[in-house]
Write a structure and sequence with these properties.
Elements lengths: L13 H26 L1 H5 L12
């Protein structure tokens, strides 16, 4: 009878670790831009001086 169970070992290659580390901030930036564009489109795409585009009158 074994008293202590074997520890769980997860093997991750160095290149996968580097790829995940590099992609996490990029994914965060993409998600932030997407959320601000969907929920606050006018504020996210507007200018400080309230310049109107050609389609608006």
């Amino acid at each position: 009878i074994e008293i202590f169970p074997l520890p769980l070992v997860v093997r991750v290659s160095f290149s996968a670790c580097v790829l995940g580390t590099v992609c996490l901030p990029l994914l965060g930036l993409i998600i932030c831009v997407f959320i601000s564009s969907v929920f606050h489109f006018e504020d996210a795409t507007g200018t400080h001086c309230q310049w109107f585009t050609m389609g608006e009158n």
